Every structure is written in structure tokens, then in C-alpha cells.
Amino acid sequence: MSKAHFGLIGLGVMGENLVLNAERNGFSSVVYNRTYSKTEAFLSERALGKSIEGAKDLRDFVSKLERPRRILMMVKAGPATDAVIQQISPYLQEGDLLIDGGNSQFADTERRVLELESKSFGYIGMGVSGGSKGALEGPSMMPGGTKSSYKAIEDLLNKMAAQVDDGPCVTYIGPRGSGHFVKTVHNGIEYGIEQILAESYDLMKRVSGMDGEQMADIFSFWNQTEELSSYLVEITEACLRTKDPSDGSDLVEKITDKAGQKGTGLWTVVSALELGASVPTIYASLNGRVMSSMKSQREYAESIISGPSVVDFDLGNPTNGMSPLMDAVVLSTISSYAQGMEILRLASIEYNYELNLPSIAQIWKGGCIIRSSLLTRIQNAFTDNDGLSNLFLDPWFAKQVNDRLPGLTSVVSGAVKSGIPVPCFSSSLDYINSYRTSRLPQNLVQAMRDCFGSHTYERVDMPGSFHTEWIK
Ligand code: 6PG
């Protein structure tokens, strides 16, 4: 019996869909899951009639694969991934390749690459984005590791990935943990955009009194514009149109307002702080989830702390897509991407990842959760200027700011006056206003630091390092 081209460990939703994707693209497969009953169920249902066989244990699994073996792990990040690596390592041979397709912390991948490449088989840490549908139909994939290991799976990944006009949504990212690092930042941007869209929904509902259908119409309008056409805007429309079958009301209003998180947004912010990247929009989205989880405290606080009594400002005419609100969404979304790209730019230098920013924008254009037409502009911006230090300095993006800053400002000031929290909109506005200000008040911070701690300061009018006795 001929051996399988590809092996998959972990039959969760993503694993099942990825192996069906590989098989559809001509790669006969073998699957292993810790609980064999799950494997049996998969083989008798979704995998029925396909070139997919099952294995009861890892020895059997490895023996059913052609060499060099190509094995994708889709297991829970953290100790579960380490456990699988430990269990399978004794059966692997020179040239074999183990790929971690989970949402692993990039530092874990760095450690694993160091440990495993000293054994003779290859190891790739690969970010996979696109949810269950993307995994089946074509995800965006971010593989990092040695180039030679990547070459061994290039044909497979090129076929499995989503396809856009300029190629498949996969490319070699860089060495060691770079693939998982880039996926982490992708998720940070994802958190930002999700919160931005949630803030726009909240304003439409609370300020303009719109219902689900009316709001969905605005998202549909936005999704037809170059600036906002995206997967997340598209699914927001779908979420807002969905009704609760029990009473026909908007289902979204029945959902508890507590957002979960699995770690990647937090890791993005921690990495940004370590690298010295300014990411207030992404941080605000993370904090929005943290604040949302404090439900009982918020309920009590609402009963004892009051805000402005009038909620009344102009979000714009729905027939032209509520243009000030659209301005706020566009500039905040660009801020989320700009901050993510800034983290990547700095990480590339600090960790020697040699990241190719236009290629990363290219592979995010299809398959992944943050896919959008803006990514073509982002790809072009970093292609036209490979030393671009911030997306807002690109002429097209600078024009967006100049055209849309009044709209964002009016939305934030209206929300502030009405006591409605808009953490991502207001952080984005501060980000842009700070970035376009050549003289910030940190001269006074420097004076205070020198006053109490003799930390010294630089002067604008002469070179050198200075100290003053501020208190005589
Ligand atoms: C993707 C997603 C996915 C992520 C979920 C949940 O790109 O397909 O980023 O990998 O796990 O979105 O993330 P949170 O639970 O942290 O929101």
C-alpha cells in the first residue's frame, strides 16, 4: 500500500478542515488524534471516500507516511504542543518535518526550533488564519523556520492557501519564531478592527437609535468602499442581520457583552511594549475586552456613577454611509494596521527576522481574518518605499488623514460629550494627533526626571547632556 503524502495530528475544527484541504489538493493523508473515537468519527463522516486514513498511535501514524515526512500539528498551544513533540520525536528521522500550525507563543517556537533543529528533523512554526472556512477553502499561512524546511512544504502550502490576484496567500516569513510572531501581530490588528466595528455599532445604536437591519445596511455600504471593503465588515453585516429564531429580534442583542481572548492580543501588546512600538489602538482593543469581562462591577458602577444626561450628536446621513462615522472607522482601522506593521518593522530589526513587509501584506489579502482591500494599499506603500517608517507617511494614507481627521474628531468629541466610551476611536485620534505633532510636552517630563533623579536632559539649542539644580 502506498504511503501518504501528508500527516495531520489533532482533529479539532481547524485540523479537520486543513487535512480535507490538503487531500482535495492531491495530498493523500493520514490523521492521528489522541482520542481514537474522534478519528473514527471523522473517517466515517467528513473523510468518507477520500484519500485519508487514520492511525491509532503515533508509531503507526509515522509509519504510514512517505519520507521525508511532512506532519502538521493542530493542537492546543502550550504544554499540549510540547507533549506531542516529545511523543513523536523518537519516531522521526533525518529530513522529516514537523509543523506547528497552532497559535503558539512565538517565544515557545523560538525555544522549540533551537531544541529540535539540533535533532536532525526540521521544525516550522506556522501561523494559520482564516477560521474553519478558511482552513477548508484556503487560509493565509505564515510559516517560519529554516528556508530549507520551508522548501520541503512549499508545494503543499502553495496549493492549500487562499489565492489572490498576485499569488497564493503564503510565503516564507523568516527564521525561528517569525511565523508565529507575524500571526500574533495579525491577531493584534484583528482585535483592533473588531473593537472599532463594535464601537461604530454602539454609536449607531445609542446615538441614532438604529436597529440591526439599519446598521447592517451601513456596514453593507461601507463594504462596497475601497477603504472599508473587508471580511470583518462583511461578517459584521451578517451578525447584525441575524435574528433570534425564538422571537425574531436581533440576535446580537441577546449576547452577553463579555469578550473572551486566547492570548494573542495580549502577546502583541507585550511585544510592542518590549520593542518600543506605539500601539494605542491595539492596546485599547485589548483593554476593551478586559473591561468587558468586568460585567458585575460595571453593573454596580452604573447604579452609583452617572454620566452626561443628553446623548445627541450627528453621526452623518445614512444615505451616504454616515460619513463622519465612516471617517472614524477608516482612520482607526488604518491606525490598527499601521501599528501592527510598526511592530513587525521593529521586530524584524531586533530579532533579525528579515521580514518582507510587502509580502506579509500580500499574504493577508486573502484567506485571513483581517483581509481587506486596504492591504493592497499597504502592500504598495511598503513596496514603493522600503524604508517607510509609518504607514501614515505614505502619500495615499496621509491624504486619508487629511480628509478624514475632522470626521474622526467630531465623532470622538460627540461621544465624549455624551459619555459613551469609544476607546479605539479616541486612542486612534490621540495616536494621529501625537504623531503629527513635532513638539510634544515631554520636555517637561524630562525636566521632572532631572529634578528628582538627576537623569539629565538634552537641549534643543546645543548638543550635550545637561543637569540643573531645579530646587534652590
Ligand atoms: C484567525 C484567528 C484565530 C484566533 C481567533 C480567536 O486568524 O483565524 O485569529 O486564529 O484564534 O480569532 O482569537 P481570540 O479568542 O483571542 O479572540
**Within the CATH hierarchy, at the fold level, what is the topology of the largest domain?**
N-(1-d-carboxylethyl)-l-norvaline Dehydrogenase, domain 2
What is the H level of CATH, i.e. the homologous superfamily of the largest domain?
Answer: N-(1-d-carboxylethyl)-l-norvaline Dehydrogenase, domain 2
Which stretches are poorly predicted, pLDDT < 50 over at least 5 residues?
none
Cα-atom Rg, whole angstroms?
Answer: 25 Å
Distance separating the two termini: 90 Å
Q: What is the CATH architecture annotation of the largest domain?
A: Orthogonal Bundle
* Silhouette: globular
State the share of residues found in helices, binned by percent.
40-55%
Going across the biggest sheet, name each strand in turn. Answer: 3-2-1-4-5-6-7
Order of helices and strands: EHEHEHEHEHEHEHHEEHHHHHHHHHHHH
**What's the number of extended β-strand segments?**
9
Which small molecules are bound? Answer: 6-phosphogluconic acid
Structural class: alpha/beta
**How much beta, percentage-wise?**
5-15%
Number of domains: 3
Q: What is the average of the pLDDT values?
A: 97
Counting DSSP H or I runs of 4 or more residues, the number of helices is: 20
**Mind telling me the CATH class of the largest domain?**
Mainly Alpha
Oligomeric state of shown chains:
single chain
Largest sheet: 7 strands, mixed
List the helices and strands and how they pair.
Elements: E1 6-9, H1 13-24, E2 29-32, H2 36-44, E3 52-55, H3 58-63, E4 70-73, H4 79-88, E5 97-100, H5 106-117, E6 122-129, H6 131-137, E7 140-144, H7 147-151, H8 154-160, E8 163-164, E9 167-168, H9 178-206, H10 212-223, H11 231-241, H12 264-275, H13 280-293, H14 295-304, H15 323-350, H16 357-363, H17 374-384, H18 395-418, H19 423-435, H20 442-453
Parallel strand pairs: 1-2, 1-4, 2-3, 4-5, 5-6
Antiparallel strand pairs: 6-7, 8-9
The structure holds 6-phosphogluconic acid (6PG).
